[in-house]
Structures are given as structure tokens and as C-alpha cells.
Specification:
Elements (H helix, E strand, L loop, with lengths): L1 E9 L2 E3 L11 E3 L1 H10 L6 E5 H8 L3 H6 L9 H4 L13 H13 L5 E4 L5 H9 L4 E5 L6 H11 L4 E8 L2 E2 L10 H11 L3 E6 L11 H10 L4 E5 L5 H10 L3 E4 L3 H4 L6
Parallel strand pairs: 1-4, 1-11, 4-5, 5-6, 6-7, 7-9, 9-10, 10-11
Antiparallel strand pairs: 1-2, 2-3, 7-8
Helix pairs in contact: 1-5, 7-8, 8-9
């Protein structure tokens, strides 16, 4: 069972996530320091970084042109976006540049990095890899269509793509172009589109330690049997990880429960 340490990034700081109320997440310190603590003290071998500024920009109508400017990325046409390694950085100031630098510094710690930064196009996926991500997270709440997911998987390889099945209290969080279907059906669509990993992330459970929805995870495991399956939100401790393993889950995203999982580190 893989334990992946979660870092939520907002306004340049690591924040403590709780129940999906992003505007209320309190800052808890420097994100690079937190990542280093995960690696050095908890001995975690994988990290997950959620760039909440990028996610909120997309969800609030920032649009593709706005997203292309994040982290100092140049504006390019859709045709240019289909060609590999043609990024030409533009001069940037302030928060966008700082966020890109933060992601790169975390990637330089030398452990695999799962990056959730509102990736919704081939261009964004390639740039996430340029920043040092080893897994590009494509979240349901930012996904324009499953055709876009298929294009991303075809362009960079499905083994580098993790589909995040974003939920709130068990209900999918998705745009109008996404079919109104049960979570397990959406998971099957992601598998068909080529994603090789699925993260089941219930925002209502994040940071609450109320437990994960084992019944739902069991259904998703059956709907997408060949994919790596990870649970996010609500993990309480070792007993939850053991039960997830019994269900066939491959790992869990954890932040709040790390002290419970590794008590010797915090004594």
C-alpha cells in the first residue's frame, strides 16, 4: 500500500485542507519545507501537489488562455500545442513564476511527484511534465470532456496520467460537458480514455479523518480492474490502509493522518 503525502498550495503557501472549503484553508508553512519533511522525516517516497490557484482559476472561468500563462508558459496555438518540447518562456512576474519555481523545487527532492494543476489539455499536460511532474493529474472538476482526457493520454502516454474522480459527499464534481453518471461509470470512461491510474478524491472528507467510502471504492475497483486505484480524503490511520488494501486499492493520498500512521516520527 503506497502512502503519498499531500501538499495543497495556495497563494504561495502550503495550506491545511478541510472538507473542501478552499477559501478557509489556513496556511501552515512553506510548501518546499513541508515536502522535505515528508521525505526526510516520514520517509515518504511519493508526493502529490495540488495547485489550488490553478484549479480555482479554471473553475472560475479563467479559460485556456489564462491557464497557458501559468508558471510563465507562453501562449501557443492548438497546432503548436500538439508538437513536443516547443515551450518558449515569456517574462513573468509575481505569483505565477513563484508557483512554477515551487513545483520545480519540490520535484528536485528526487521522489515521484503527482501534480494536480488544472490540466485540461495536451499543452498543460506537457508543461506539467516540464515542471518535473512524474504523474499528471487530470481532475474531473476541470476536465472539459473525456475526449480531452483521451487526447492527453495519447500525447504523453496513459501511464503518466492519473484521472482524479473528484467528488463532494459522493457526488461527482464536473462541468456541463461531462455525462451525469455514477462515479464508477465515470471511472470506466477514464479507463477507456487511456488513463492508467485513478484517484478517488472526496473533497467533503479531506482533512476530516472521518474515514473513506469503502463501498464506493469497491464499486470503482470492479469498474476499472486494470488501473492503479488510489483513495483520497478521510483516511484515519493504519486500519483504513489495511482495508483499502483488501479492496484492491494500490495507495492513498494522506496529509492529516500522517502522524497517526507514523507515530514514532512525532514522539
Amino acid at each position: 500500500m503506497r502512502v503519498i503525502g499531500v501538499i495543497d498550495l495556495r497563494n504561495g503557501r502550503a495550506v491545511r485542507a478541510c472538507a473542501g472549503h478552499r477559501d478557509r484553508y489556513p496556511p501552515i508553512g512553506d510548501p518546499v519545507d513541508l515536502a522535505r519533511r515528508y521525505v526526510d522525516h516520514y520517509k515518504l517516497t511519493e508526493l502529490y501537489l495540488a495547485d489550488l490557484d490553478a484549479i480555482e482559476s479554471s473553475n472560475n472561468g479563467g479559460g485556456p488562455d489564462r491557464l497557458r500563462q501559468d508558471y510563465g508558459e507562453s501562449r501557443r496555438s492548438e497546432a503548436e500545442a500538439e508538437r513536443p518540447a516547443l515551450h518558449v518562456a515569456r517574462p513573468v512576474q509575481g505569483r505565477d513564476r513563484d508557483r512554477g519555481d515551487t513545483i520545480r523545487r519540490i520535484a528536485e527532492l528526487g521522489v515521484p511527484l503527482w501534480l494536480d494543476a488544472s490540466v485540461s489539455s495536451v499543452e498543460r499536460a506537457r508543461h506539467a511534465l516540464d515542471l518535473g511532474a512524474t504523474r499528471v493529474v487530470v481532475g474531473l472538476e476541470s476536465l472539459p470532456s473525456f475526449h480531452a482526457l483521451r487526447s492527453i493520454c495519447a500525447a504523453i502516454g496513459g501511464e503518466f496520467v492519473a484521472f482524479s474522480l473528484d467528488l463532494r459527499a459522493g457526488e461527482p464534481i464536473a462541468g456541463r460537458a461531462i455525462p451525469l453518471e455514477a462515479p464508477e461509470q465515470l471511472a470506466a470512461r477514464a479507463a477507456d480514455a487511456g488513463a492508467r491510474s485513478i484517484i478517488v478524491l472526496d473533497l467533503a472528507r479531506v482533512g476530516t479523518r472521518v474515514g473513506v467510502d469503502f463501498e464506493l471504492l469497491g464499486r470503482i475497483r470492479k469498474a476499472a480492474p486494470g488501473l492503479a486505484l488510489l483513495a483520497g480524503g478521510g483516511v484515519r490511520g493504519l486500519a483504513d490502509l489495511e482495508k483499502l488494501a483488501e479492496l484492491g486499492c494500490d495507495g492513498a493520498l494522506v496529509a492529516t493522518a500522517l502522524d497517526a500512521l507514523y507515530p514514532s516520527v512525532t514522539r
